[in-house]
Amino acid sequence: MQNFDYFRLDGHTLRVFVSICETGSISRTAVLFGLNQSTISHTLDKMRAAVGDPLFVKAGRGITPTEKTIVIMPRVQQIIADIEGLIEPETYDVSLDSRPIVIAISTPALIHDMKRLHARIVKAAPGVIFEIRRLAPRDRVKEMLMHDEAEIAIAVSGYDYPSTLTHCHYASEKMIVFYDAACRGPVRTPEEYADARHAVVNFGGGVKSEVEKSLEALGLKRKVSLVAPTASMLGDLIKGTDIIATMPQRLADTAYSRLSQCARPVALSDASYDLVWHRRYEHSGRHIWLRRMVMNSRLP
Asked: Which of 58, 182, 197, 290 has the greatest number of C-beta atoms within 10 Å?
């Protein structure tokens, strides 16, 4: 370790190290980089020699980070973001750029915003392709932005973002209760609400929901009967059942248009969304233009 030339640690080595940390897998990292596992292992060995630590140890069929890895990971992420930020131009002319615009969203509640954004993009750059990708589960935001699977993500708030990601508040909206009026009536009291069968979306991240917190404050607990991977699928699944779902109000115009709705009988915070991007694009002219377009396309 004393004789190691630290300047031999290039950006590629650091990115491989971060990817192994994020995926917990050398094989997965090899796929992401389009390389074989032996090449990734050799790159990791360079990092191990530099810091004098194994960095990862076997744990069952997988690997787990050492204490040293946990300590240096945020610093390495910061270094990568700073390096990548050097290559981005500060000025941007959309008329000279034909690259696709890719945005990841976590819920169909944002569809109308995306329609407005698409219209603005078509007007500013008619030849540019606008692609929307699904952000699920929520904690995939880090991987998607790290590997440029999306330029920007609009995620449900509450996720603990790493230092390599920057975010700002995007929008908030009221939460209401959806149900099939052919199978049940509205819920009018906290007790009726807690006793009903509930459907929820698994956004990932293991964060306790506002519904659970509000009911616990009242000494109540809801009965979760159905868990779906997406909000749109959940809307289809509760149709024809007596199950209720507490979801953002604007879904009434899209995925939940065939369901009835009522006010929530418990105090809940509004649904909140974050606009998230990778720190390496903080001063990118293209990215600044795109973030402005996204924010200006929000529904009032």
From this structure: 290
Output the CATH code of domain 175-269: 3.40.190.10
Neighbours of 102 (CB within 10 A): 17
CATH 3.40.190.10 residue ranges of the chain are: 94-172+273-296, 175-269
- Give ranges for CATH 1.10.10.10 in the chain: 6-85
Q: What is the CATH number of domain 94-172+273-296?
A: 3.40.190.10
Tokens 């031999």 sit at which residue? Answer: 8
Per-residue confidence of the chain (300 residues) as pLDDT tens digits? Answer: 445 455 668 888 999 999 998 888 999 999 989 999 999 999 999 999 888 899 999 888 889 999 999 888 888 887 887 776 666 556 788 888 889 999 999 888 899 999 999 999 999 988 899 999 998 777 789 889 988 899 999 998 878 888 889 999 999 989 999 999 999 999 999 999 999 999 998 765 556 778 888 899 999 999 999 999 888 899 999 999 999 999 999 999 888 999 999 999 999 888 899 999 998 888 888 999 999 999 999 977
E-only strand ranges, the chain: 56-59, 62-65, 101-105, 130-134, 152-156, 165-173, 175-179, 197-201, 223-228, 245-248, 260-262, 271-278
Mention the CATH class of domain 6-85.
mainly alpha
